[in-house]
């Protein structure tokens, strides 16, 4: 990610610039060390570095300064060459990057389950094409695997830089040709526009603001602005030392005070970026700040920082895969040590042989080799994606278990289920009742409706089976992340309007078709606590308490109003309790247990489940009593005798962490049979007596 523009393996403390090179500044390598250390320690889970992610922003400022200094200097001398510029970029970036991609591919092939490997393959292709920031932004959706499971997640920042360096040299060439006198003003205008866009977007679409170039460009442009020496450097050493000290303090505040909950980048990114800019601008050589930044241990860490950045994150992710849980403090410390050792080796034996005059590889074979490795990596990624994660590489018994991942009924996917605004039935079709049917065929008017989020799609096969047995027919209306709460104030993720429109259409359908029976199904614990379980993925740590904060006011009020309205119009309501959350992807967890011949009893403890379910169950029970509604509770079918099951007959009960498989759902049909066989009651009377 960070850029080192020199040839010698160890720095001289004074070197005069030569064509195509910059005068070496040891303090910038020291600044690199101050950037990379918090990043590594934060990722490794070392306490105290909650804002360590800001080190990436420091790198952006450094990179912008060095690249702008180099390119503008060559343009001014009239010897800038795009070809030579990208030759330097390839020599600097490709060797270590593609070594990491190759090593990560081997580890992923051996350790990851098919869906995980497929995600990895997509990120692998994107990393090779320097578009991984775009890929990861696209993946930040509902059914995405957790960030902690993506070995190449850190390549997003490399992609941002390389995209910037495709455009920036061309911009400088054009500006120099047509508006040389306004170069600084143009860069400043672009910087301000990018910062304003970042500040606006971070509170509305945080993933977009985090990953995409247009919202990060201001950080690189801040460094580039420094390269034009618009603000004269202070002559007094004391002032320079004070500015460098202030810069270090600003970075430190961000590292130690920011957390994962800090809206970022946006205005918060000013702290580390301005801090980095002050250190670069000051160029302090004396005083404690100057001496610290130029200290040989810190400078060496700066020298290996690119390799350290590349290697540390895959080591952390694959270690989690091996241990099956978050790293302990000791394990995190060992990973940090291993990362430094591997980075030093990589810097010396992978980076250095390709750089400067020591490299025996000429320009033409360099470009050919770069194209070849890119094609090879992209080809491997395409093969893995085309073969859906290559399940054939797994033993037969593991393949059988893992197949639960794909055990999804038609109600859990388009066109029956809407997992976005562009899939599933349109709003006019919802109002018209043009939805996927449930139960017996041939009926004109629906006898019931299943309404809810993705958990309704997972439970629908159970209701479908019971309805077929009873000879009644109904309709299914399900939308991802949209509980049947027409006016609930859900968290600001764009769900309020999207879910509001969908639920309003379903409400109109129930009224216009006089649907007599409605099943309301949702991921209730998630909504009443406004949180899923921590660490959902392939590992789960029951020592981390589940989110239990009561945020149910809007959910309760909305469900109360809906049930009152349905009951008044004569519609019977059935509330379906949620299945227990497993806290990890069950097919992966069980398959890995089978592969390693360890216990497949990987469900969370009963007391953990009970605490997590308590609030939502109390709310549903209370409202059911108030309106004479029925309750269907699947929890006893999965948890009994103080124990929750992860498998039945050796197969996972869930396709992921909280959605049951279609096979599991079908086995639960007996729970719904009494609803269809019970004599008709008058819900309005029950409401009137409440």
- Give the strand tally: 11
Residue-averaged pLDDT: 90
Structural class: mainly alpha
Number of helices: 28
Largest sheet: 7 strands, mixed
Q: First CA to last CA: what distance? A: 65 Å
Rg over CA atoms, rounded to whole Å, is: 29 Å
Quaternary structure annotation: single chain
Helicity range: 55-70%
Query: What percent of residues are in strands?
Result: 5-15%
Q: Stretches where pLDDT falls below 50 for ≥5 residues? A: 1-20, 681-690
The 3D shape can be described as elongated
Description:
By secondary structure, this protein is mainly alpha-helical. It has helices at residues 26-43, 55-77, 82-111, 114-128, 132-138, 155-179, 183-201, 206-211, 217-227, 237-257, 270-282, 287-293, 296-303, 305-323, 329-351, 363-386, 396-402, 427-432, 454-470, 495-512, 524-529, 553-568, 586-596, 606-627, 635-638, 662-667, 669-677, 683-688, and strands spanning 417-418, 436-439, 448-452, 473-479, 517-521, 572-576, 630-632, 639-640, 643-644, 647-648, 651-652. The strands form 3 sheets. Strands 1, 2, 3, 4, 5, 6 and 7 form a 7-stranded mixed β-sheet that branches. Strand 10 and strand 11 (651-652) form a beta hairpin. The longest helix has 30 residues, at 82-111. It starts with 25 loop residues before the first helix and ends with a helix. The model is unreliable at 1-20 and 681-690 (pLDDT under 50).
